[in-house]
Amino acid sequence: MNLSAALTLLFAASASAFAPATTPRTSSALSQTTNQDPFGAGKSLEYTGGNDPNSKNYSKLSEKLAEADTERRKIREEAERRERAAEIRREERLAKIKYMNDMPEDQPAGTVDEFMFKEGVQDQLNKLDDDLVGLLAVKKRVKEIAALLVLDKMRRKLGFETSVPSLHMSFTGAPGTGKTTVAVRMGQILAKMGYARRGHVVLATRDDLVGQYVGHTAPKTKEMIKKAMGGVLLVDEAYYLYNAANDRDYGQESIEILLNVMENNQDDLVVAVAGYKDRMDKFFSYIPGMMSRIGNHIDFPNYTADELVKIAGVMARDLEYDIDAEAYATFKGYIEARMELPYFSNARTVRNAMDRARMNSAIRTFEKYAINGENGGVCTVEDLKNIGAEDFQILLDDILNADVDKRIFA
What's the pTM? Predict the structure, then answer.
């Protein structure tokens, strides 16, 4: 063997000795499974949010596209709805113009009396005359409002354009001048004419509308408004809602809610504010928005002594009592004396006096028949219905004979 051959064999043996051992190859799980989605859009590549705190702000592109399609459809449908509504209004307008052009000049619209009686308005005005003595200016204003409503309804019957007039009211005057009574009658007139669903009256004061802590006023005010919907909300002594000395007073929140309702719900709620005239004028100066939303301002003057005597007669009639003729003169003397004292409240003072006169009549009748046994203890119907001069004289004597500081309680 020559030298070159020996060297070749040596190198071959060395290479085989140092070569790594060969093991059979096994296929991996990745190579064994066939990838159904060659583009890598499988479940493993979907975004799950991970630990990103903003993950809720992300979504699939397909979902965003679907939402955009829904929004575009809604916008398109809303535009079509508005277009249809506008077309309907145009058709109604053209039909109305044709109707008005074709209407004969002598087209009967009905008589005012027919509407007054048919709708029951005249009946409510008659009740107002029966319930309230005097107050001619007040009754005149109420009749003017009723006339507007009647004529407006006659116009609507013929197809003329009409709109709901501003029916919010302000009643100013001393206590006992009939403000609540007028509000009740106005509510019933509005209901008869179709301007109020129910026509009831809800009386509210500051305590009913304003809360005692933050977040309490709005629910209270809205609850009273909810009760009055379809009728009249009468806010008595409305100036107490605003406290000029305290910018953080909760009454301001109640006023803002009332103003909003007066503007946006005037077709379903009439708001009437009441109180002394001077204080109401000052209240309106602080809240000009309230003043501008009220279209009917009615002032209630104080009653005269003769009118208060007539009111006593109306109260006796309603309670089925008979006042003796000479008793009226005694009662007028009492009223004239009481009017000179503080805290006089017009018809309320008369009502209190009538209650005391009834009590005096009951005591007198009880002593006569039950204690003294006259007529065998048997009294007549006239005795049960009678109020005499002596029953009012007791009230007058209490004023004349009482100490100066106690006369207001007589």
Answer: 0.64
